[in-house]
Structure formats: structure tokens, C-alpha cells
Amino acid sequence: xxKNTRIxxxxxxxxxxxxxxxQTYSFENSKxxxxxxxxxxxxxxxxxxxxxxxxxxxxxxxxxxxxxxTTPNGLSEACKSRNGxxxxxxxxxxxxxxxxxxxxxDSKGKEVCQLPFLLNFKGWRCIWAKFQNDMNMSAKSTxxxxxxxxxxxxxxxxxxxxxxxxxxxxxxxxxxxxxxKVNRTDHSLIPDFIGYRNTKPQTDKVISATDIQIxxxxxxxxxxxxxxxxxxxxxxxxxxxxxxxxFIHNGLTAAEKIKIQYNKDNTPKGEPLFPxxxxxxxxxxxTTKFKTVNEKILLPLSLDYxxxxxxxxxxxxxxxxxxxxxxxxxxxxxxGTLCFEKLRSSGYFHSFFLLKEQLPHDIFERELQAxxxxxxxxxCYQTPEHAxxxxxxxxxxxIPKLIYALxxxxxxxxxxxxxxxxxxxxxxxxxxxxxxxxxKADFSGYHHRGPYHSAYYPHALYAGSLIAYLxxxxxxxxxxxxxxxxxxxxxxxxxxxxxxxxxxGTVGRFPNGQQILETLLPAFAxxxxxxxxPDKELTAAFKRIIETEEYQQAITKYIRNVNSNLAYTSTxxxxxxxxxxxxxxxxxxxxxxxxxxxxxxGLLVAKDSLLHFNIKGFSRYIWDFESSATENTxxxxxxxxxxxxxxxxxxxQIFQSTRN
Length: 660
Prior knowledge:
- This protein is of the alpha+beta class.
- The chain contains 18 helices and 21 strands.
């Protein structure tokens, strides 16, 4: 009986709480609400365009038309919440340099707030906007009526609305884009995309370069993707090529469900696509994300064309670019938020470089502007407030930024872009002050306000090292200071590793992610080969790692792994450079021994050929920032004081943790 009572109580709680949630207008019942009226034009539910299901609201508006929504569902609860507001997708057919304006009015017809939304685009766009925070509505106000005022100087147009929702919980991740503004001043996690987009392309002193010098950078990057075919194929190359072929095959198989189809208005017929921030299920149907196509399809198709001359793969990529653009993947489109979207788009970025010479002019220009937007390249034209850069932006966007600069057609503009990129990278790889990322004076790597050696920092080391290799021996080569920081970062990393494992007190929220060092082997090769003569110290350290028998399985596993997830690094060219450095006659270094204190990590490392100790402390400045209610719930104590002992002879690991 008690059990049944509890179930009944839970059911009643569910019913009463869900009843106050706003209703999403998806127009799947083919009906327009009776209390929605337009004074000049027509509204109806249609299957011509839709962002979910098979229907949306079509608005055929005339000059100065007003669409009135009286007491729409969810509005009352949305007004009561500090984070309440509007969420919707809008499709526009014919761009105009005028906005439509959402006017929100109380029961007496008085305006309490408004949201202008510019219609200078074709395709889908998204709105996430809060009444109080973004539209400056008074917390005491209530809204009874919503009016959509259409352009005053454009004769007519057709606009669609889908998934309209008045919600008490607009996401904290919302951001301004080219269509509307939100009141965000903290850009620490969600960057100022619009600010970067509007920055004038300029730099104090432009570095000139010949076409051949710039071509050298492009050729190196191309060889990194495709291989140079100048070396005999060895064991590592065979493993990587075999697994790359599997990656391509799986991508082509996944792409079979994508059919090249266009409507009469020359827009793609593809299913709706959503950003990462969208729910996995909408209106009872699973959503397809841009991320899925980016990771699993775009890059395999591009590699298939470049390696196998498959024209069908090229045609499908061209279609996907059109499909993406129509669904909202475009310059200036924020899709609600790009907080994490920018970090999971490597397939798109790299496919553009591989196929840019095959793109028709209009598609090339369109996608180049999208690349500028998603990579936040405009930050390169701004004067940095301090040294350093967020590790996320390095690992996910450093190579895509270079791709943008190399793709600019105008020679003068390209030299400005490449100069700005070089300056940006030199600053990014400088020693950052305070809690900023990424490189610290003791060559700890910071992310989320603390040492993070299981992820982020090693990825940033990799990206910075690859940039160093691609730009070396050109006018845009990184500074000697940047090269020094990369070298010391790599050598320090290999010192504090016990075998391939980083200290447990620096794992952040990835307590099982200690084995990392093998993933940095390419970075050793990139920096070592960025000099006129291969760097002997880096080469010796590299050779000790690859010639240690106990590490072979981990190295082989790394070489087998081919994917385009957060950052695409699984290339044939990467393995060729590993092989090249391995063939150099420099002897491997002796077993590393000594002691190292790293104040930014609160870490003391003492080691010789047989033993390795990590002693991790903490203070008011060094703590674990990565624990939460759902992740790494006990891992914070790894960072709060610990002694870690490795018996390198027996390859065993013993922990003794203390905590306060």
C-alpha cells in the first residue's frame, strides 16, 4: 500500500509539473490557432518547409503586415521566470535588409519589450531570447499578446515559423548572431562571435610572402592529409592506411541514405538538421544533428574524392553544403548557441580545404564566409588583452583558422590574414597569466582554471606543434619563443609522465584518462622537424618512447585510431612524419631522472630509471574545478593532495591519497 501511495504521489507530481510547461507550436495538426490573425496577408499550416515533423506555419506577408498572437500557450509561465522567453526556428525565402519585430504587450496593449529580427538571409535561423535579460522587460510585467510586425519598406515576402515555444527556461548558452542581439557580456565560455565577425581585417605590419612561399604551406598541409608518397611504406603507414580506408568506407555507407534532391526553388529536400544544443528527440522523432554528418560523412566523402577520384562523393559533398546552408549552417547564424558546435565541426572544416579547388565560385565564397564565422577568425585581427588562449580554441580551431587564411583569394587580403594568424598563434602559445590558459611558466597546461593534463593541454600542444611545422621556414614561421615553449612543454610533459601516464592529480574530470603520452608523439615530430636540423633533444626523447617495448601496443592503438571527432589528426602525413623522425640516427635518450617542482600544478615529481613519485598538493589557487553532481564525483580528491608511486621495473602503480 505504501508503495502504491508513493507511485500515485509521483504521478500526481508529474502531472502537475508538466501541465505548467509551455506547449510547443509545431503545427503538425495542420491548424492555425483561432486567436492568431494577420491583417495583411495570409497564414496557414504547410508542408512546404518544416524544421521538425512535416509542417510549419507559413506567413505570406504584405508590406507593414502585423501578425497577432493572443494569449499564446506558455506565455504566462514564461513571464514569471527570470529566464523566461522565446525559442523558435524561422525560415525566410527572400532576403531583405529590414527586420521583422516581435512586440510583446500587456493586457492593456502597452508594449513591455520587443525583439527585432533581421530578415537579410535565406534558410533557417533560430531564436533563443529572454524577456528580462535580453529584452529588458521589467520583472513585474506580464505579456498577454505577441505581435509580429513585418518590414515597412519591402512589398511582400514569405516567412515560416516552426517549433515556436514560450518557455520559462531559455538556455544560459544563448548568444547574439547576425539576426538579433542578446545581452551577453561574459564571453569566457560563449565567445563574442559577432564581435569577431565585425572586426576589420587588419594588422599593424603586414608580412609579405611570395606565391611559392604560401604554396609551401598549402602543400605541407595537403601532404599532411594525403601523404607525400615519397617514402617507402612501412608498418605504421600500412596500419594507418588500412584504418583510413575503413573510415572512408564507413562514411560512404552512412552517406548512402543522403539523396541528392532539390525542390523547385532549388533548395535541398534533405531532412531537418539540428545543432548539438537541440534535444535528441523532438515531437517524438529522433533529431539528426549537423555534428553527426560532420563527424561521420563529410570528411570520408572528401577523402574518397581526393584519394579515389570518386565524382559521386564530390557531388554529395556539394549537396551537403547546400543542405547545411539551407538548414542554418551559415555565416552569422548562431542556431541558438555555438558554445560547443564550434568544437565538434572538424569534418566540415577539413572537407572544405580538401575540396575548395573543386567548389563553384558562389559555393566557395559562401562556405568561406561560414568558415570565417565558425572558426572565429576575426579574433586574429584584434589586439589581445593578455597572453595565452583557451585550449579548446587551439585544439579545435587552430588548423581551421589556418585553412581560412590559406583560402582567401585576394593576395593582399591573404597576406593580412596570414600575418594576423601568425601573431595570434604567437600570442596563444605565450605564457598566460593567472588562471588563463594554456601555457604556464612551469609548463603546466591550464584549462578551466587549473592543470589539465589528461585532455585540453595535450591537444593544444599537438595543434600548436602542427602549426609550427606547417609554417616553418616561411615568412609566417612562429617566433623562437613559441617554438621554445612548445619544445619545453613537450619535454616537461614526458618528464612528469610515468611511462605513458600523467600524474593522477592532473586528470580533471577524466580519472581514467591517465595514458596520454603516446598521442603526443606526432607533436614531438612536428616541432623537431620545424628546425633547419632536426632538434636532437626532442628526437632523442621521441626515440626512447617509440623504442620502449612496453609502449608498442599503445602506440599501435593510436595509429589505428582514425576519426574526425573533436579534432581530426588521423592522417597519413602524420604517420609519415613519425616515420621520418624515427629514421634519424640520433640515439635515444637515457632514462629520465631528477626532480621537478611545478607550482602551477601544485606538483612535485621525482624519478629515476626504476621509480617515479608524484606528490600533488593544493591551495586556494590550485584546486579541482571539474567535479560536478554527475561527473568525476570523487575525483576532486585526486587534486586535493595525493602521493602516487610507480614501480617502473614491474610496471605497477600504487596510490596513496589524502584529503581534507
